[in-house]
């Protein structure tokens, strides 16, 4: 009987891998040169969710103003739930993933007396979209104890993570990294490892939260908060610029796919060389 060689074993390995969903490797990026029709309103529409030319390129501009405040919304949208305003788009990645975006942090946000601001990147993860868990990473300059009061004495600019796994279900403040600068772009990122959400600020790990509902990236969101601000001059209008929203499958799985593909090509080349 002839030696079958490595081909049957290779077929078994490749066939097993082929059983994984193709969309598990469907990396995508949204540079916001235009607003993709994949985006739809989440909760309540902000004053603007649009492409705007800013610092030499097209970016996403999300704007909050008084038209979306509690007093000016239709009565069906009076609940504080609708103070969070933005849009969402399908995540379209099966298995483990990472989601990141760049956000411009203006020095105007670094104030304890002026405009209240808050904006965040959010993702829903899980095998069932009706029972998913949420990763939320953003920034604010509102008071942690009295967030709707622009004149609160403990206001400060900070990055924050909503810790859904916390028994208090609250926000976790992230200190500014060494060398942090305002009037600059910063990258917010989180990864679903299958067991945890891992949060990174400019590539540095800052928080870890256990997850339990699965690992598919169901939905990506970009939001801002409407404080309905009174006092401090009655301000309630601000814009935040985001760019390069990027979703990728978990790197280990992607590397495995590439490795198996290379293995298959090497085997084919060796088989071909034996014919000569």
What does this structure look like?
The chain has 276 residues and is mostly beta strands. It has a single domain, classed as Exo-inulinase, domain 1 (Jelly Rolls). Helices cover 13% and strands 39% of the residues. The chain has helices at 7-18, 251-274; strands at 28-30, 40-42, 48-54, 57-64, 84-93, 97-105, 118-125, 133-140, 158-162, 171-174, 184-192, 196-201, 204-210, 217-225, 238-249. Strands 1, 3, 4, 6, 11, 12, 13 and 15 form an eight-stranded antiparallel sheet that branches. A seven-stranded antiparallel sheet has the order 2-5-14-7-8-9-10, with no helix packed on it. A hairpin with a 3-residue loop joins strand 11 and strand 12. Helix 1 (7-18) runs antiparallel to helix 2. The two termini are 23 Å apart.
CATH fold description: Jelly Rolls
Give the CA-based shape: globular
Annotation, overall tally of beta strands: 15
Q: Into how many domains do the coordinates divide? A: 1
Distance between the termini: 23 Å
List the total number of helices: 2
Would you state the CATH class?
A: Mainly Beta
Helix-strand sequence: HEEEEEEEEEEEEEEEH
Please state the second-level CATH architecture.
Answer: Sandwich
Structural class: mainly beta
> What percent of residues adopt helix (DSSP H or I)?
10-25%
Q: What would you say about this model in short?
A:
Helix content is 13%, strand content 39%. With 276 residues, it is mainly beta. The chain has one domain: Exo-inulinase, domain 1 (Jelly Rolls).
């Amino acid at each position: 009987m002839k030696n079958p060689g490595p081909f049957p074993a290779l077929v078994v390995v490749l066939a097993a891998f082929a059983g994984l969903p193709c969309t598990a490797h469907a990396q995508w990026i949204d540079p916001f040169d235009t607003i993709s029709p994949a985006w739809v309103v989440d909760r309540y529409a902000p004053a603007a969710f649009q492409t705007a030319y800013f610092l030499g390129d097209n970016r996403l501009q999300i704007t909050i103003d008084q038209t979306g405040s509690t007093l000016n919304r239709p009565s069906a949208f009076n609940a504080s739930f609708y103070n969070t305003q933005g849009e969402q788009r399908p995540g379209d990645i099966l298995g483990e993933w990472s989601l990141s975006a760049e956000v411009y942090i203006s020095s105007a946000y670094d104030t304890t007396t002026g405009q209240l601001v808050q904006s965040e990147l959010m993702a829903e993860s899980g095998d069932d979209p009706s029972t998913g868990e949420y990763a939320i990473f953003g920034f604010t300059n509102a008071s942690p104890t009295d967030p709707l009061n622009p004149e609160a004495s403990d206001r400060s600019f900070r990055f924050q993570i909503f810790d859904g796994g916390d028994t208090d279900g609250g926000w976790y403040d992230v200190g500014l990294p060494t060398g942090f600068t305002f009037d600059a772009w910063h990258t917010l990122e989180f990864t679903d490892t299958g067991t945890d959400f891992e949060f990174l600020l400019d590539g540095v790990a800052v928080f870890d939260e256990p997850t339990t509902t699965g690992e598919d990236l169901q939905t990506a969101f970009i939001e801002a908060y409407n404080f309905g601000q009174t006092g401090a001059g009655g301000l309630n209008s601000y814009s935040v610029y985001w760019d390069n929203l990027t979703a990728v499958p978990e790197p280990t799985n992607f590397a495995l796919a590439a490795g198996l593909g290379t293995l298959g090509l090497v085997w084919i080349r060796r088989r071909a060389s034996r014919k000569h």
